[in-house]
Amino acid sequence: MAQIFHRSSNSLARVSMLGAVVLVAGLLWAASEFQRSPYFTYAGEAKMQPVPFSHQHHVAGLGLDCRYCHTSVETSGFAGIPPTKTCMNCHSQIWTNAPMLEPVRESYRSGKSLVWTRVNDLPDFVYFDHSIHINKGVGCDTCHGPVNKMPLMYSYASLQMEWCLNCHRAPEKFLRPRDQVFNMDYQQPSSSKPVSVNGKTYTDQLAMGNDLKQAYHLRSVTDITNCNTCHR
Amino acid sequence: MQQGPEEKTITEERLLPGQPATLAPGHTLGSITDKISWVVLRRPITLGWVSGFAIAFGLLMLLQLAIGYLLFRGVGIWGINIPVGWGFAIINFVWWIGIGHAGTLISAILLLLKQNWRNSINRFAEAMTLFAVACAGMFPLIHTGRPWLAVYWLFPYPNTMGVWPQFRSPLIWDVFAVSTYGTISLLFWFVGLIPDLATFRDTAKNPVARFVYGLLAMGWRGSARHWKRYESAYLLLAGLATPLVLSVHTVVSFDFAVSILPGWHTTIFPPYFVAGAIYSGFAMVLVLAIPIRQFYGMKDMITERHLDNAAKVMLATGLIVAYGYAMEVFFAWYSANGFERFMMHNRMFGPYGWAYWMLIATNIVIPQVLWIRSVRLAPFKLFLVSIVVLVGMWMERFVIVAVSLHRDFLPSSWGMYVPTRWDWMTFVGTLGLFFTAMFLFIRIMPMISIFEMRTLLPESKIEEEVAAHD
Amino acid sequence: MDNEQNTKGAQEPAKPKADVCPTKRGKLELSEVRDMLTEKKGPQYWRTLDELSQTPEFEEMLHREFPRQASEWEGGGTSRRDFLKVMSASLALAALSACVKQPLEPIVPYVRQPEEITLGKPLFFATAFPMPMGAVPVLVESHEGRPTKIEGNPQHPATLGGTDVFTQASILTLYDPDRSQTITYLGDARPWGQFLNAIRGPLNAQKAAGGGGLRLLTGAVTSPTLAAQIRDFQKLYPQAKWHVWEPVAHGNARAASQARFGQPIDTQYNFEKAEVVVTLDGDFLSSGFLGFHRNARQFAARRRPELKEAMLRMYAVESTPTNTGGKADHRLPVRASEVESIARALAAQVGVGGASVNLQGEQAKFVAAAAKDLQSKRGRCVVVPGEHQSVAVHMLAHSMNQALGAVGQTVIYTDPIEAAPVDYTASLKEIVGDMNAGKVDILIMVGVNPVYDAPVDLNFQQAMDKVPLRVHQGMYQDETSRLSHWHINGTHYLEQWGDARAFDGTASIIQPLIAPLYSGRSDHELLAMMNGQSDASGYDLVRKYWQTQHTGLDFESWWRRSLHDGLIEGTTSAPKTIAAKGTAIPAAPQSSGSMEIMFRRDHTIYDGRFAQNAWLQETPKPMTQLTWDNAVLLSIATGKKLDIKTEDLVELEYQGRKVKGAVWLTPGHPDNAATVYLGYGRDNSGRVASGLGFNAYKLRRSDAPWFDRGLKLTKTGETYELACTQGHQNMEGRALVRAATLEEFIKNPGFAHEMVEAPAPGLTMYAAYQYKDHKWGMTIDMNSCIGCKTCVVACQSENNIPVVGKTEVKRGRHMHWLRIDTYHEGTAENPKSYFQPVPCMQCENAPCEVVCPVGATVHSAEGLNDMVYNRCVGTRYCSNNCPYKVRRFNFLLFTAPVWDSPQLSMLQNPDVTVRSRGVMEKCNYCVQRITHARISAEEDNNRKIPDGEVLTACQQACPADAIVFGDMNDPNSRVSKMKAMQRNFGLLEELNTRPRTTYMAVVRNPNPELEPQQKREEHASLAVADAGKGV
User: How far apart are CA C866 and CA C849, in angstroms?
Assistant: First the structure.
């Protein structure tokens, strides 16, 4: 009786057994990578905006402070998005007829709001509060990245829960002196670049972070990793 | 050289005067092979099979509709509410898992106990197990109405949320228990199939069939080495499967026992859930075996002896279950706990009293007829009793789940539970899934283990010894 | 996320959110449809509608404006279209939702941001909610121009910060998508301008003729400005007449004060000094009674058993079960018509009134005991007559209070707060007469719906048809507007300027929180139009009026302060000392027939004006716990006698008129009498209101508006399903509510702890968690709770709790996080009742936490039992394992109306997640408020959060101050003090769940003469025995 299978199928069978394992593992890995990919999280991806506003130009170039536009960042959960009026403060004098700024002038004339696309967008069931982070010494660029180097705004971090927890589980790794919160060029203390907080000079982030935790009365890690810290 | 005579003596003891044999006399190695493989390879598709399959498939479509609408609208389409948060979904889950126990029990435990009468029923019993577990496994997923989330969060894996499931919850234990059980049963079943698949490969005429069976047979040649490895692997799996038979339903019973609800919070649950599982499992085996031996002329392989033994197992487990019920009542009284006592009283005389008494009747009273030998040997009567037991075991789960929930601590939040048409569709739908799979199995797989049947032949004893010794 | 919602809402408050969302461009708003339809006459109009309805935008708009939940409300099962969608949809869902990529969202800034607004921080404005019995002063929370929550105004003397169900729910009416959204002429949309042109001619004609044919019909007017405007109106049209109609307010109280004092006066009660209270069907603890809020607060204060002998004792004579009767120590159920004889007997025994009436048995004993108590507590007692009771009963009450020296102490007479304190029925009769006589050429109806709620024998509709020009102003297209030529869509009080008096006379300015959603016209603006100032804005009118009133200097700062405080200093009406003119008690009317019918205003929808408010419809009525319907209340004995069961549909025949209604057998209801509640049986007046219950107004006559004999009940054989949230009101002998008498309490203050044996706190294998910072906790005083349900609605409003509709309530799926369990104890003829508010207990050993497979409900470091909606997969295990059954599950997409209607989405509280389908939810101590308080405290260089800074919504709303929330780590906090009291006990504490929310045991103060000692002991021991069973 003729063989149904060629003898090679023996080795084929063995290989396929191994292959199956590899395949499954590979798929799982791919899935977990995909979830964290910029495609999925928008991280590093600039969005289309009605006006190609450049933070680089305004912050690094003109040296505007974050709070000039994001006025409520120190007092409210919402950092605040500038009304058209704020733009017009300057642009009624300079670049008064740059075609690029027409939507802004139009909005100011018509009283109809500009409609931006949200860049750092958390899900609706997450309640992030800017003011408390600012007050506890979390720098703008810790979450928003080098905004002063962004011609077009993009979100710097994945904004996924594991990313939030990185800091909430070990705040000392990220805290900085309050007076440095809005400093875009701030760098964590190192032997080459020490940082001094009210008299004391640090060359090591952890040492400083732990002291700042005391100084700024941070609640315990247990407290700030409670679900109701962000979800309600 | 021990085994032989020992076996003999056992066989002699086994065959008390007037007791039917495990395998009717007059069979040869060839006749067994032909008889079993004939069903799959040469027997034409009969009208009976087609119509049976059609009905089952129809019900399966009903299931698809029910689940589709569930995903579309949410669990609100069911009769559940506050306080009765769990309804048919969980009831069916527990019921099916229970049924899924017999297969592994028969193939594993009876194997270890050298009960070789199992050889003629273990194959389709295992198949039944797989399909039952498949039906059961569906419910934990759909009972949230959002299975994608269930899958997403119940399985512990490193995720973007940086948090794990809550391992204190019995529902998580369930996930592991059931999936483990499913995997082992599948392996066990498949390994057991290999030699027969090889036989099919060799006897099949249709090239496609030969190729497929060949693929599945994984190059089995039946050499002594194959047999040796096979035996050890099979034994190993049997060893693995045995504790699972006990563990799975124990864990399932924790879903209830771990809670603080009167009627759920009790230590008797693990043992009597397992017993109940085997009880319903054997009932389902008989419900399948009796028609099969009838319509496929297998009376000489699935003999009255099998019916007799299965019936006895049912009787025994049934009595354990009865003991369980008795204990529940006793606990309620002995605990002197007002809530417990009320729960028991409410079960018996509350708005769902009928369910409790129906449960007692179908699960305890009626099956007592199995004491009578003539009933155990009469296929049709036995068939009816098995059906009754299956109903009874379903009622048990209804009483435990729904009736305990509908009246608990605060009278202000008491309620009633009324299943909707969607509940019923889901239930009969799973029956459809089960029987569809069963019908297909009968047509494409050896429903009785060929080579294990052969070992029942007197002349195979020698072979066995040889196999055992080299 | 709240930020994102805020900015959406931010752009221009008056506009629905959807407008500013670019993803929905080319979207059609109702307003636009209106514009397109304006200027079109009948046939033409319909053609346009046809053309219009072809366009996809219109379809889409319809879909938005008419939420799918509507079908849920009607309980309509599933359409064929659903089935077709099923397969694809479900598969898509399964695939999609597994890994959801977040959609891009817009963010919309202001063009010019108002200075006072800090994005993300709510503002509070003081205003007042006008009601016929006196406005309720409130503080309204506003997020970027969206009012989202109503709170009481603690500075106000009339309410002391309390609110009621109507006030709490009034915000939903503002956003109701079914409000009248346009001016109509014979049903066709019209602009304001056209109305002006149409009305100018006739008005001028009237002006010339002195306005003889001009009639103005309004509801009760407590607004000084409006009153002034009406005076101007009457100057302008000297012969014009102003009529006032209120279907349920005041009842006979006014007629009585006319008879006694020769002038209308308001009677206020001051329970601060009361030690004995006898009510003659006076339900002073139910929302809608004059001075409800203050009554509740003072009553609760007087009921604290810690006052020992000085604790208030209440005798209630009542004709239908009410909260007041439930709180009473002795309750005498009699038919409304029999209250008068009781009153006469009582009066005789306290030495006033005419000949005594001799009563039998229980009644005699009751009256004797009550009389004795009253006289022993002269000046510290009060007799409260029911508004709807006969003039005689009111007169007797007046003389009794006089004789007992209560007047000036516990009873205070003041001038009415109403501008025209007339007898409403008489006033309505007069105008009907004029209309029938053809004397009326123009009828202007402002905020009234007489076609629906006028006494049926007046045939208002018939009379109205004789009027050549009928104008109706109101918030809804209702029965009356449909029979009027012109309908002017009115404004909600949160959309308009105005003013109103609270029941104690204190005036408040009503300031708008939002521009009119549908450019409605307020009553002020309508009056101004008729007074020839068609362009006057509400703001100018109100401000001008108060400029005339304000005497001192610097009006501006005075005005600002009045706005800020929400009340105007020195407007509180002074107590009046006034001598009785007539004291003759009218003879008791000879009524025939055995069966009695009693009409009552509804507990949740008042006279029907709130019928379209889904929150109120779903709020269980006190005592019966019914929702979404009114019913015919009968006593159980009467039910037996007539062989009628609960939910049987019966035909009520009275004076030749018939109505069909469903029966609800009620313990404690007097025999041979039926109570029917007004306000239901609306047809096509909104998706919520229509088709619920039956219209009792169809039986109500002007000669017997409150009760009368001669009712005929006949079974129809049909049944009608009612949706009740608590099917079982018997405690089954479990120690759920723990009660004792004052005597027992004084003997054994710790009685509550002996009723069950609770495991010792240390009884656990694990070390107790140490709460370093805060340790939140709550106590609920069941002695204070009057079961008014205000907290339930407040909670619903604060926490975006969805409405599920009648069908779902019937299935036991209502969503209230906080419910008030009502239990009866004793005989079915006259049971004792207990109210037990049940929120989540935030157990220390929470059974729900261990069983959740995904850890969606976990303990916080401040002791809260967090519920994480986005983590929940919906196994419902937690609910099964919760002994209190306080967890609520979104079985379907209950929030569909919110997603579907731009108005309702503006209502949502941005600080609370709007839950979707398949998610468990429950009370979380208003964690959003705790978080805000904590953050502001930490930013304010880590100051401590003072006790009372965090108020939960239920606590803030409670008129009786029964709920106390605070930090248990602070020994001086109110909650710690309460928990230290001996009445404090935990519900089901025997399960060792260690509830964080605990209760104050009930202590009743019965009269030993009526409830002899040894009997009580039996009862007590029985209670303990039962409790034993419960352990």
Answer: 9
Is any Cβ of chain B less than 8 angstroms from the Cβ of C992?
no
Which residues in chain A touch residue C864, judged by CB atoms under 8 angstroms apart?
228
Residue C649 has phi, psi (to 5 degrees) of -90, 120
Amino acid at C109: P
Out of A115, A131, A229, whose CB is closest to C939? A131
Q: Do B411 and C78 touch (CB under 8 A)?
A: no
C964 near B CB under 8 A: no
Name the residue among C725, C79, C727, C812 with its Cα closest to residue B418: C812
User: Which chain C residues are Cβ-neighbours of B162 within 8 angstroms?
Assistant: none
Query: Which chain A residues contact residue C862 at CB under 8 A?
Result: 223, 226
Alpha-carbon Rg of chain C, whole angstroms? 29
Q: Would you say C487 and C472 are in contact if contact means Cβ atoms under 8 Å apart?
A: yes
- CB contact (8 A) between residue B150 and residue C873: yes
Taking the CA atoms of residue A130, residue A135, residue A137 and residue A139 in that order, the dihedral angle to the nearest 10 degrees is 30
User: Cα–Cα distance between C457 and C462 in angstroms, integer?
Assistant: 11
Q: Which two tokens stand for residue C903?
A: 């108005």
The answer to whether the beta carbons of residues B20 and B308 sit under 8 Å apart is yes
Verify whether the Cβ–Cβ distance A117 to C938 is below 8 Å.
no
Chain A residues touching C937 at Cβ < 8 A: none
- B72:C736 CB<8 A: no
- To the nearest whole Å, the CA of A4 is away from the closest chain B CA by 6
Which one of A1, A32, A158 has the shortest CB-CB distance to B158? Answer: A32
- The Cα of B160 is separated from the nearest Cα of chain A by a number of Å equal to 5
In which region does residue C860 sit, left (phi positive, over 0), alpha (psi from -120 to 50) or beta (all else)? beta
Contact by Cβ (8 Å): C847, C882: yes
Give me the average pLDDT of each 10-residue run along chain C (1031 residues). 38 35 42 50 40 49 43 38 42 46 83 84 92 92 91 90 93 92 90 90 88 90 92 91 90 86 90 92 89 92 89 92 92 90 88 75 88 90 91 89 89 90 90 91 92 92 91 92 92 93 92 90 91 86 90 86 90 87 73 84 91 93 92 92 91 92 92 92 84 91 89 91 89 88 89 83 78 92 93 94 93 93 89 93 92 92 92 92 94 89 90 92 94 92 90 93 94 93 91 92 90 51 34 28
Q: How does DSSP classify residue C407?
A: B
- What is the pTM assigned to this prediction? 0.88
Which DSSP string do the residues of C705-726 spell out, in sequence order? SSEEE-EEEEEEEEE---EES-
Best A32, A53, A153, A232 member to test C by mutation, with max C CBs in 10 Å, is: A232
Q: Which tens digits make up the pLDDT trace of B244-290? A: 888 888 999 999 999 999 999 998 999 989 999 999 999 999 999 89
* AA letter at B67: I
